[in-house]
Amino acid sequence: MLLKLHFSLLLFFSVSVVLGSRSSSVEFQYLNVKSNKFDVNDSQLLHTLNFSNGHRLVTGRKSNHTKFKLKLVHRDKLPHIHGQHQGFDERIKRDVKRVATLVRRLSRDDTTTSVVEDNSYKVANFGTGVISGMEEGSGEYFVRIGVGSPPRSQYMVIDSGSDIVWVQCQPCRQCYQQSDPVFNPAESTSYTGVSCGSAICDRLENAGCHSGRCRYEVSYGDGSYTKGTLALETLTIGEVTVRDMAIGCGHTNQGMFIGAAGLLGLGGGSMSFVGQLGGQTGGAFSYCLVSRGIGSTGTLDFGRGAMPVGATWISLVRNPNAPSFYYIGLAGVGVGGIKVPIPEETFQLTEYGTNGVVMDTGTAVTRLPTAAYVAFRDSFTALTSNLPRAPGVSIFDTCYNLNGFESVRVPTVSFYFSDGPVLTLPANNFLIPVDSAGTFCFAFAPSPSGLSIIGNIQQGGIQISFDGANGFVGFGPNIC
């Protein structure tokens, strides 16, 4: 008989073993429209994990290190830059540019740094608060860290698809507005410029040289960019001090990083924050992004101690052409507990390193190849015919007028992974408000290519962990 494990993603993950076949009845859940939270109905909100052929579920990684976590920071405390606030339309425009950039980068070998490994940076486990950047117009997430000695507190955008750490620096020839004073390296006793002939400079793909100092340049798909000098600097994460971190000191910057001082790259490359931490963390980190309508803060933790016991783990998929990105094996999508009939090869990485499925914190809306998206959407609309429709909004073609509703009954939406697990999303991770008039839209869109991207709206509120050394990504066991 088929072995099945069940857990809920509402208030907790509850794991139990039952025998028998999966019910063919349609699964529904409730979206609380006014508060954009769940109405809990345990009998209808079970999440199913199917395993066969002796597949082993990895339920966490033991660690001798102590997990360290900072006090959470409320997103409302991020100082608002007057005149820089952007609405829904601007955020979606930026998201479209982000996706276009990923499609360009992942359709060829176009990484921004080399893959030279260096495990010289050793630190203990530590953590920091993560706050939503959507209200500040960046569409990203921020952490608060200290830069330099003495440490100067700065807000940094986190990005799982980037491989460099950088901050805006004085003297600033061109800088955008940020919440904190621009970092001045002349006031830091730990700042050291990197010479052109150093091994660290060689690790940058777009390195240059000026007056004997290593120069860097990073461009982003939305037109944002940063240019400056590469340096070794001390970063302070809560009570943990990380010395000699290679960072970009940006003297010429432009872009959509409103409020943030710079960017903390969490990609899989050697120059990212995760890569530079090296053997002590083993590429292990965990985040819980702000869940829309449920909470105001999340967490970002690094190290073995951050790996939760009881999580459901699936394998990372390696793409030699894009080692910085986190690919996963997606076998399909489901609506109402029923798998949508989409060929599994639609989501597979090709031998040329194209297509596949990337998890990305910088993309808001999940993208699926057009044919897969249409089948997925049609399955959803077939089970929501009782809800009043609204005109499409921006990139969303499936919207509903929920004005006046307290809550609505909607079918479950799930990701089927190649390893066996099925991840059923909270309702507010796929039906989101897009205006103040009660319009909610199905938060998925077609991809302009064969690449699929799991965005941060769908990841919101779920504890997600990356174990780079062992090649796993984990979900749960708790929501934010």
TrEMBL record:
<dbReference type="Pfam" id="PF14543">
    <property type="entry name" value="TAXi_N"/>
</dbReference>
<dbReference type="GO" id="GO:0004190">
    <property type="term" value="F:aspartic-type endopeptidase activity"/>
</dbReference>
<feature type="domain" description="Peptidase A1">
    <location>
        <begin position="141"/>
        <end position="476"/>
    </location>
</feature>
<comment type="similarity">
    <text>Belongs to the peptidase A1 family.</text>
</comment>
<protein>
    <submittedName>
        <fullName>Protein ASPARTIC PROTEASE IN GUARD CELL 2-like</fullName>
    </submittedName>
</protein>
<dbReference type="InterPro" id="IPR033873">
    <property type="entry name" value="CND41-like"/>
</dbReference>
<keyword id="KW-0064">Aspartyl protease</keyword>
<feature type="active site">
    <location>
        <position position="360"/>
    </location>
</feature>
<keyword id="KW-0645">Protease</keyword>
<dbReference type="InterPro" id="IPR001461">
    <property type="entry name" value="Aspartic_peptidase_A1"/>
</dbReference>
<dbReference type="InterPro" id="IPR032861">
    <property type="entry name" value="TAXi_N"/>
</dbReference>
<dbReference type="InterPro" id="IPR032799">
    <property type="entry name" value="TAXi_C"/>
</dbReference>
<dbReference type="InterPro" id="IPR033121">
    <property type="entry name" value="PEPTIDASE_A1"/>
</dbReference>
<keyword id="KW-0238">DNA-binding</keyword>
<dbReference type="InterPro" id="IPR021109">
    <property type="entry name" value="Peptidase_aspartic_dom_sf"/>
</dbReference>
<dbReference type="GO" id="GO:0003677">
    <property type="term" value="F:DNA binding"/>
</dbReference>
<feature type="signal peptide">
    <location>
        <begin position="1"/>
        <end position="20"/>
    </location>
</feature>
<feature type="active site">
    <location>
        <position position="159"/>
    </location>
</feature>
<keyword id="KW-0378">Hydrolase</keyword>
<dbReference type="Pfam" id="PF14541">
    <property type="entry name" value="TAXi_C"/>
</dbReference>
<dbReference type="GO" id="GO:0006508">
    <property type="term" value="P:proteolysis"/>
</dbReference>
<keyword id="KW-0732">Signal</keyword>
